[in-house]
Design goal:
Elements lengths: L24 E9 L5 E5 L2 E5 L4 E5 L6 E5 L4 E9 L5 H18 L2 E8 L6 E5 L4 E5 L8 E4 L4 E5 L6 E6 L2 H14 L13 E9 L3
Antiparallel strand pairs: 1-6, 2-3, 3-4, 5-6, 7-12, 7-13, 8-9, 9-10, 11-12
Length: 210
C-alpha cells in the first residue's frame, strides 16, 4: 500500500513518512548502591527503606519498571524493556527517588525559610510541639495565618539566624510541601508584587548533615 501512496494522495506528508518509527531500546538498566546502615526491601515494586531516623515507603507500581536487589542486597537495580527515549528517563527518576529515601532515613531533609519584610515585621509563633506555625502582622494585617505541617514534619526557629524558620523531616515530599504551604500562606494580593516583596521564602534546602 506504500507504493500506491502518491503525492496527490490526501494522506501524503513528505516531512513525516508513514513508515518512519521511533527507535526502541531493547533493555536499559540503572543501579544505585545501598549506603551503610540502611536496609531496603522490595516487594512487587513497593520499596521500604529503614535507617537511623525511621522507615519510609514508596510505591512504584504505576511505572513499567523492574526493580530488584543485587549483589547480596548491596545494590538496587532498575530495568526497562522496549522503551522509547523519553520513557527511559523514568529509570533515573526511580533511582533518584530511592536515593532520596536513603538520605531521608539517614540524614533528614531541612528547608530553611526567611521572613522577608520592608516595614511591618512578620511574627512567627510555633505551637503544637513544632507541628503548627502562626504568622502574624503580615503587611500589618490583623488576620492570623495558621499553617499545619504535614505528617512527619516539624518546624523550628533558627538558633543562629534572625527571622529564619527551619522545616525538617525524613520524607522530601512532605517536607518540601510543608515549606510550600508556608510560602503560599503569605502571598501579596491586589498589589504590585515587584514592589511588595514581603513574604516567607525558601533560602536553602538539602540534607541536615550538609
Amino acid at each position: 500500500w506504500l507504493k500506491g501512496l502518491q503525492p496527490s494522495s490526501p494522506f501524503w506528508n513528505p516531512w513525516h513518512p508513514p513508515y518512519s518509527a521511533e527507535m526502541k531500546t531493547l533493555v536499559q538498566e540503572e543501579s544505585i548502591k545501598v549506603p551503610k546502615g540502611s536496609k531496603i526491601t522490595i516487594k512487587a515494586k513497593m520499596v521500604e527503606v529503614t535507617g537511623k531516623y525511621g522507615t519510609l515507603k514508596r510505591d512504584f507500581r504505576h511505572l513499567p519498571v523492574e526493580l530488584w536487589l543485587a549483589n547480596n542486597g548491596k545494590e538496587v537495580k532498575a530495568r526497562m524493556y522496549f522503551a522509547k527515549s523519553k520513557q527511559l528517563s523514568m529509570l533515573r527518576t526511580v533511582c533518584s527517588h530511592i536515593s532520596n529515601l536513603f538520605d531521608g532515613v539517614e540524614k533528614k531533609f531541612i528547608y530553611r525559610m526567611r521572613l522577608v519584610y520592608a516595614h511591618f515585621p512578620i511574627n512567627a509563633n510555633i505551637t503544637n510541639g513544632g507541628k503548627t506555625v502562626e504568622l502574624r502582622n503580615f503587611l500589618g494585617e490583623k488576620i492570623v495565618r495558621t499553617v499545619h505541617m504535614l505528617p512527619g514534619v516539624t518546624i523550628d526557629k533558627s538558633a543562629s539566624t534572625k527571622d529564619e524558620l527551619c522545616v525538617t523531616g525524613m520524607d522530601i515530599d512532605t517536607t518540601s510541601r510543608s515549606a510550600a504551604l508556608i510560602r503560599q500562606a503569605c502571598l501579596v494580593k491586589k498589589k504590585d508584587i515587584r514592589k511588595f516583596l514581603d513574604g516567607v521564602y525558601v533560602s536553602s534546602h538539602g540534607t541536615m548533615d550538609d
